[in-house]
Amino acid sequence: MGRGATAGVRLAGRGSRAGVSRARAYTHSAGAGESGLARIVELHFVSLAGDAAFTVALAGTIFAIPTDQARVQVAQFLLLTMAPFALLAPFIGPLLDRFRHGRRWAIGTTLAARAFLCWVLADAVASHSAWVFPTALGCLVASRAYGVTRASAVPRVLPAGVSLVEANSRNALAGVVGMAVGGAVAAAVAGFGAQWSLRLAFAIYVVGTVLAVRLPARVDSDIGEQDIADTVVLTPAGRTPQRRHPLARLRGRVAALPTTVLAAMCSAAGTRLLAGFLTLFVAFLMREHPLPGLSGTLTLALVAGAAGVGNGLGTLVGNALGHRRPEVITAASLLACVLAALVTAAFYSVWTLVALGLVAGLAGQTVKLGADAVVQRDVGESVRTRVFAWQETTLQTAWVIGGGIGIALPLVPVLGFGVVSALLVVVLLVTVWVRASHIGTAPAPAA
Fold first, then answer.
1. How many of the other CB atoms lie within 10 Å of CB of 204?
2. Percent of all residues in the chain with a pLDDT value above 70, rounded to a whole number
3. Average pLDDT for residues 246-259, to the nearest whole number?
4. Distance between alpha carbon 230 and the CA centroid of its chain, in Å?
5. Do 164 and 19 meet the contact criterion of CB atoms below 8 Å apart?
6. Please, which residues bridge with residue 441 across strands?
7. Model pLDDT for residues 424-443, shown as the tens digit of each residue
8. 317-346 pLDDT tens trace
9. Where are the alpha helices (DSSP H) in 289-325?
10. What spatial distance separates the first Cα and last Cα of the chain, rounded to whole Å?
11. Do the Cβ atoms of 222 and 101 come closer than 8 Å?
12. Max CA-CA distance within the chain?
């Protein structure tokens, strides 16, 4: 038995080393190792592994509180903590424009903040402190901010032979693997208590902070970059450009975006709204009203697993459809979410819930890749980073709105999924209206 166990450990070690070698070969291929893209991919793997460990701990702490009390506290801290982020989200892109020389430190700050909050949260969970909710939601805010800062850095490290869509596909795939690895390790550690999953997340985030600071210096470069509004707002000859109010600059950015980009952002926002709604509404619904013959935990695990599988499939499908028109991809993804939500509202069951989770994960990934492709194609390189960061901020705001709706609605399946279906239909109509009315500028071919 001892020899068999030793052989098994050696075999597992060899398999792990082979897997790591193949993963590094993939992330460093096509010049990604020399350009620095591979470092961002590896950083994203670490960040999502930490998020998975944090989520495992969250599932055993926050959702262990009685439903009514938990909903009130989540809604309260969502309003106090997430709402300011949602209101200020349109200004995060311009803020990155102003301080873009510090992207590495901005990314590292979001990871360091999550590490600190997870350490505090571990003690709060062990002592049943009232700081559980504000620290947990603070981690979520830092996670959203990480997505914005990382998105603004990716275009600066693109190798010559890799497109923005392919780069984000690598990041997405690394994120899926990171969540799987981090979730598995955290689930094993959680047997000793939820606080140990949080301490594991703390250690992972510390590693991520170091990796962020060690990103290549070109991440902070702003050579050739300019403001998106300045590309269309002309100043008469002989006059000095006037400083404009931030809201005026915001309107200028909206007017400067091509119609195709605005429509793609609407579609992507719709799928992200659905993801935020599912995250909170289904979690509380399964605790209060589990389906007959199934435990709420099992149903929630099935829906979450289906969403994860859909997210992974979305990366593969997005690569396979890379040469298709991205407008078709984004529109089809949003339409699939609308139909899946309507079917769930009309025929509520475990199968429709799982199907909705699968469609939400698949569509969320494909629409993001399609929206990135539209930005890459229709926005010049001198302003592409600005638009990409602003798009990511908009998607995070949509997630916050969807999560807030999921908390506010009564735990009635037909009502909840009916409301989110109606909202998705509205988003679909707005997308069609944007395309038909040509609100934005004509597409500017990428440099």
1. 28
2. 72
3. 62
4. 29
5. no
6. 258
7. 999 999 999 988 876 655 55
8. 766 665 567 888 899 999 999 999 999 999
9. 296-320
10. 64
11. yes
12. 87
Q: What is the pLDDT of residues 181-209, one digit of tens each?
A: 998 999 888 888 888 999 999 999 999 99
Which CATH code for domain 249-447? 1.20.1250.20
Angle at 156 between CA 152 and CA 159, to 5 degrees: 135
Contact call for residues 23 and 37 (beta carbons, < 8 A): no
Q: Identify whether the C-beta of residue 319 lies closer than 8 Å to the C-beta of residue 169.
A: yes
Choose among 151, 446, 169, 158: nearest CA to 321: 169
Residue 85 is encoded by which pair of tokens? 């982020």
Ramachandran class of 67: left when φ > 0, alpha when ψ lies in -120 to 50, beta otherwise: alpha
Q: Tokens 């559980």 identify what position?
A: 132
Tokens at 253, concatenated: 């950015």
Tell me: the pLDDT tens digits for 37-62?
Answer: 899 999 999 999 999 999 888 766 65
Cα–Cα distance for residue pair 229/249, rounded to 1 Å: 7
- pTM for the predicted model, two decimal places: 0.71
DSSP code of residue 293: T
- Per-residue model confidence (pLDDT) at position 385: 64
* Interatomic CA distance for residues 343 and 340, integer angstroms: 5
Q: Could you give the residue range(s) of every CATH 1.20.1250.20 domain in the chain?
A: 35-221, 249-447
Identify the CA nearest to 420 among candidates 265, 281, 314, 287. 281
Tokens of 128: 């049943």
- The dotted CATH code for 35-221 is 1.20.1250.20
Taking the C-alpha atoms of residue 332 and residue 102, their distance in angstroms, rounded to an integer, is: 38
CA–CA dist 341, 347 (Å, integer): 10
Please give the Cα distance from 50 to 140 (Å, whole number).
Answer: 12
Structure letter (DSSP) for residue 192: G
pLDDT digits (tens, 9 = 90+) for 224-239: 555 555 444 333 334 3
Please list, in sequence order, all residues whose beta carbon lies within 8 angstroms of the beta carbon of residue 87, skipping any fewer than 6 positions away. none
